[in-house]
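#struct-help
A.M.: can someone run this one for me? Single chain, 93 residues.
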Amino acid sequence: MDRDYDSILKTKLGVVAIDNDGRKAKKRVQQAFIGMPEAHLKEFAIYGTPEEVLKQIREFEHVVGIQYLIVDSDPQREIEALEVFVDEIIKRY
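D.P.: on it. Structure tokens below:
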């Protein structure tokens, strides 16, 4: 039985790491996914400066067609990470 593609709710689950220094955000993601080849990090994480993260989210929306983004944040700084996500991404989206 074929399913109508438009009837599927398209989602993306991933870790989000935001920092004004994109290198620091990338390093946190690399530490969370130790041993994962860098080419695969983008499959599991969205990271970088607020502008870079916003651009990646928009690309997932417009190119891939996601309708919902389900985010996971750094558990060691979860509250701060969520505040940054709200202030730097949601309010600017």
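A.M.: thanks! The helical segments are 22-32, 38-44, 50-64, 78-90.
D.P.: also worth noting: The chain is about 50% helix and 20% strand.
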